[in-house]
Amino acid sequence: MTAFKIARRWFQAGRRIEMQDLATEVGVSRATLFRWVGGRDELLTEVMWSLAEPTLRDAVAAAPGEGGTKLAGALESFSETLLATDYFAVFLRREPERALRVLTTRAGSLQGRMTAAMQELLNQHLDPAKLPMEPPDLAYLLVRVVETFLYTDMITGAQANPAKVGQAVAALLRD
Q1: b/e map 28-64, b = 16+ CB within 10 Å
Q2: Which of 74, 92, 147, 149 is the one with CA 20 to 30 A from 138?
Q3: Helix/strand/coil for 95
Q4: Furthest C-alpha separation in the chain
Q5: CA distances from 49 to 156, 168, 173, 175 (A)
Q6: What is the pLDDT of residue 18?
Q7: CA distances to 7, 16, 140, 157 from 71, in Å
Q8: DSSP state string for 141-167
Q9: Distances from the Cα of 152 to the Cαs of 11, 28, 148, in angstroms?
């Protein structure tokens, strides 16, 4: 079993991914593990993207409507699913600073991947000529909207609220 698969299984089980433990499990040195997967933040990013990408894809496929309505519903559903996922909640509670760094900054590539996915969704579901701003900027803004309402408990202490994701996205993407 590869280091990534083991790390993903541990993450989904709510287990903290420790590089030395993972190296031992795989049967390699810690240095070899780092050459294979990069640092802990990079590995966490890969694991989380492997879980988030199909969740986003499924949310878009299941969302009713079209255009901005579809994307608003999809992003609200995506946010609801993430918040309801035990392993994600465990990670956010156990390592809030690392989670915010990996999920919302350039320390991990997750935000960049989400922004690229969002731009692809904009291109697929909306007329670029009718967007309120340039697609790359709007994609980034939509990712930040999702982050804002998903991680608001860690940022401000208020309760996370996926419905606000849908409301904000709908306001931005009025057809």
Answers
A1: eeeeebbeebeebbebbbbbbbebbeeebeebbeebe
A2: 92
A3: coil
A4: 54
A5: 25, 23, 25, 29
A6: 96
A7: 31, 33, 14, 27
A8: HHHHHHHHHHSHHHHTSPPP-HHHHHH
A9: 22, 39, 6
Helix 19-26, helix 3-12: angle, nearest 10: 130
Cα 58 to Cα 8, 18, 24, 78, distances in angstroms: 19, 30, 35, 8
DSSP 8-state assignment for residue 58 = H
Residue with tokens 């879980």, as numbered in its chain: 51
pLDDT bracket for residue 52 (50, 70, 90): very high
The pLDDT of residue 12 is above 70: yes
Amino acid at 49: W
Q: What amino acid is encoded at 100 in this protein?
A: L
Q: What sign does the dihedral 160-162-168-169 (CA atoms) show?
A: positive
